[in-house]
Give the backbone structure.
Amino acid sequence: MTTTACFIVVSKNDIPIYEAEVGSTVRQKQEQAHQHQFILHAALDLVQDLAWTTSAMFLRSVDRFNDLTVSVYVTAGHTRLMLLHDSRNEDGIKNFFQEVHELYVKTLLNPLYLIGSRITSAHFDTRVRALARKFL
Amino acid sequence: MGREVAESCIDGVIIEMVSAYASRFYSSKPDLAARRIEAIGFQVGHQLSERYTMERPRFADHLEAIKFICKDFWSELFKKQIDNLKTNHRGTFVLQDNHFRWLTRISLDPAAVANNDATSESESGADMTSMLLYFPCGIIRGALNNLGISCAVSADMTNLPACKFTCDTC
């Protein structure tokens, strides 16, 4: 089963600090990667409005484009974890977000990590991809 | 995440950090030492607030964030809640802790306080304590900054061991 999925983490200053293509298709994602990024960034406005209406962290699907949906998870520090996907597995996506949130908190706890800067750790990248294979 | 550490170790580390910055690193520039200690507290507060807000839903407004600081955040750090919260509804909050844990191990030498000749001793005793208080001020400022409220936090220790933290959002 091939799925397309693109995952980005946007800090509270609206700067993307991490992005990864985590879908299981190999060939077509190279041409469509820029399109995925464009869709995710365009959805940021909608997230902004929706985030203030609810106190939940997991905002389900905020936007649609063709057959791709954007799901968002907002932390208390207003860091947005955004996933562009074509699957319908909401529980899996929610668990994926919770696990990545834990990873993100661990990254923050690193005293040498400048808050709001890009996450460049290869370990973080490996773990996120492994979680994506497991839950998506 | 969330392993345990002995409380005496925390007390020891904090007291030694404050003393190192105030007496050794920046001994001639006490306000610079205070800024560095507050900056360390800022980063710690930022990280701790991110960790403690993971399980709970997000905050609807400023007052809820302050109440989180008074209840959950304070009880995670000091095993008790803030005893008194006052606000003037125009952006200033006063958090009062009647028995601030980190100050319970600090003693101001009573002989030096009573003695007029040693006024410099009593001053340095009070100075040391106020240096120590910059760290929790930084923690509160860092936590509130992460929750979206930028403010200035100051501490008032006129009657130990009670301590009042004033958060000014404007």
Remarks:
- The first strand of chain B starts at residue 84 and ends at 87.
- The first helix of chain B runs from residue 7 to 25.
- Helices of chain B lie at 7-25, 30-52, 62-78, 110-114, 119-146.
- Chain B touches chain A at residues 1, 43, 46-47, 49-51, 53-54, 56-60, 146-148 (CB under 8 Å).
